[in-house]
Design a protein that fits this description.
Layout (H helix, E strand, L loop, with lengths): L27 H8 L9 E7 L5 E9 L9 H10 L4 E7 L9 H16 L3 E8 L4 E3 H4 L15
Parallel strand pairs: 3-4
Antiparallel strand pairs: 1-2, 1-3, 4-5
Length: about 160
């Protein structure tokens, strides 16, 4: 009888296309400065940014690349990455190729769903940032957030 092998999980981190800044991420504008060229893409992208306990970026991952006005959303994949990276905090970035960073009704539904799912796992969704042409929108800022904190925020939705 031939032996069967169990598959081994292997995670490999590689350098990405975005340059990191030194220090701690404290404000949505810090995220925008790192990922602002996402606003020039012709397709919607959904990116997860995962943080360590000191709010330093551990990694980011392109979660989905869609069309000019939509992208796929899979909360299980987003949260699985947080668990694999041992990250208790994350931010989702999404671009709007139209240039208008204001959230669509689908964006708002995604934010609420992801926030609720992450709470079950005791993982904090710190922010949802939408990048347009030379501007951005942040749920954290819209709810009068100051610096990113270790605790959850009241999103008002």
């Amino acid at each position: 009888m031939e032996g069967k092998y169990i598959r081994k999980l292997s995670i490999r981190l590689v350098n990405g296309e975005y340059s990191n800044i030194e220090g701690v991420i404290r404000f949505p504008k810090d995220i925008y400065q790192i990922f602002r060229k996402l606003g020039n893409k012709y397709q919607e992208n959904l990116i997860g940014i995962y943080f360590d306990e000191k709010m330093r970026i551990i990694a980011y991952d392109t979660l989905s690349i869609g069309s000019k006005n939509t992208t796929l959303y899979c909360p299980d994949e987003i949260l699985k990455r947080a668990i694999l990276l041992n990250s208790k905090r994350f931010i989702i970035i999404h671009n709007h190729p139209s240039g208008n960073p204001n959230p669509s009704p689908e964006d708002k539904d995604m934010m609420i769903d992801l926030r609720n799912r992450s709470r079950i796992l005791n993982i904090i969704l710190l922010d949802f940032v939408i990048i347009g042409h030379n501007n951005y929108w942040s749920i954290f800022e819209k709810n009068e957030g100051g610096e990113y904190m270790m605790g959850d925020i009241d999103w008002g939705y």
